[in-house]
Amino acid sequence: MFYQIEDALHPIDAAACEPSRLTVGILTPAELKQQNEHFHFHQQTIEEAMHPRNNHIDLYENYDFGTICFHNTRGNGEVKDFQAAFYIRRNQLIISSEDIGRVLVAIREVTGRIPLKSLTLEKLIYALFEKLISKDFSLLQEINEQIERIEEDIMNDRNVSFHQEIAPLRKTLLLFENHYSHLIEMGSDLQENENEVFTEENLRYFHMMTDRVSRLFNQTRMLREYMTQVREAYQAQTDNHLNQIMKLFTVITTIFLPLTLIVGWYGMNFTNMPELTWKYGYLAVIILSVVVVGFCFYYFKKKNLF
């Protein structure tokens, strides 16, 4: 479906597109391939539009071609991609996606809040990008709150399933960081305007788009660094708990070491050991053992070793 934008969205046929009027095309990959006789796009772009994989933009004769993948990712690591390919010519934007319903809704929302008489191709592209990333700031804020909650649990020594909670967040942030870096490159490529499909005075919209995505990229990187700090705090707490356990075992071993010496000493059974035949020998060993253990407890308690 093609729409000519004037005072409203007017459906038109592909053959009726006029270069002097702003036109938007919304096609499935199959429809794009079927109607390519009207556009004469390179066959490689048609094949790539069938299966968009990443964010990039390439220059061809008289038009720009790109693919894009926006991630609808929640904090639990669940990822649902929106994939699309697009062609940009002077006063013409053609979008190819299996999810044409979502594209059409976005087009109608954008054209519904912007005066159509002032709408340009550059402004339309900027508004669509802004629409697709509009929820990302709130999503990153949700992730930040989850990391803060995990950090608070660690600091309060509450039971935390750290790896189960942090792994999906780390995966999400890595995915978004790569995603935004590619979008920044795309914005820079659009600003260069090598095919001269945009007007010079409207290139500022792509600069605005790049700045907006750069803020998302910086916030994502900041959250990844924050997550690294939380992971280090968790590791430090785990090491501290392990040290406390080892310290307790060391104290217990030290307390019973003199008792081991006494047992070994009187376990030699030499014939000339007077304590073996002494009437109070057994009681004396018990008293000695109790005194040694009591002294060790007193000493370690005084030194705050347990």
UniProtKB/TrEMBL annotation:
<keyword id="KW-0812">Transmembrane</keyword>
<comment type="function">
    <text>Mediates influx of magnesium ions. Alternates between open and closed states. Activated by low cytoplasmic Mg(2+) levels. Inactive when cytoplasmic Mg(2+) levels are high.</text>
</comment>
<dbReference type="GO" id="GO:0050897">
    <property type="term" value="F:cobalt ion binding"/>
</dbReference>
<protein>
    <recommendedName>
        <fullName>Magnesium transporter</fullName>
    </recommendedName>
</protein>
<feature type="transmembrane region" description="Helical">
    <location>
        <begin position="280"/>
        <end position="300"/>
    </location>
</feature>
<keyword id="KW-0813">Transport</keyword>
<dbReference type="Pfam" id="PF01544">
    <property type="entry name" value="CorA"/>
</dbReference>
<dbReference type="GO" id="GO:0015087">
    <property type="term" value="F:cobalt ion transmembrane transporter activity"/>
</dbReference>
<keyword id="KW-0472">Membrane</keyword>
<keyword id="KW-0460">Magnesium</keyword>
<dbReference type="GO" id="GO:0015095">
    <property type="term" value="F:magnesium ion transmembrane transporter activity"/>
</dbReference>
<dbReference type="GO" id="GO:0000287">
    <property type="term" value="F:magnesium ion binding"/>
</dbReference>
<dbReference type="InterPro" id="IPR045861">
    <property type="entry name" value="CorA_cytoplasmic_dom"/>
</dbReference>
<keyword id="KW-1003">Cell membrane</keyword>
<dbReference type="InterPro" id="IPR002523">
    <property type="entry name" value="MgTranspt_CorA/ZnTranspt_ZntB"/>
</dbReference>
<dbReference type="InterPro" id="IPR045863">
    <property type="entry name" value="CorA_TM1_TM2"/>
</dbReference>
<keyword id="KW-1133">Transmembrane helix</keyword>
<dbReference type="GO" id="GO:0005886">
    <property type="term" value="C:plasma membrane"/>
</dbReference>
<comment type="similarity">
    <text>Belongs to the CorA metal ion transporter (MIT) (TC 1.A.35) family.</text>
</comment>
<keyword id="KW-0406">Ion transport</keyword>
<feature type="transmembrane region" description="Helical">
    <location>
        <begin position="248"/>
        <end position="268"/>
    </location>
</feature>
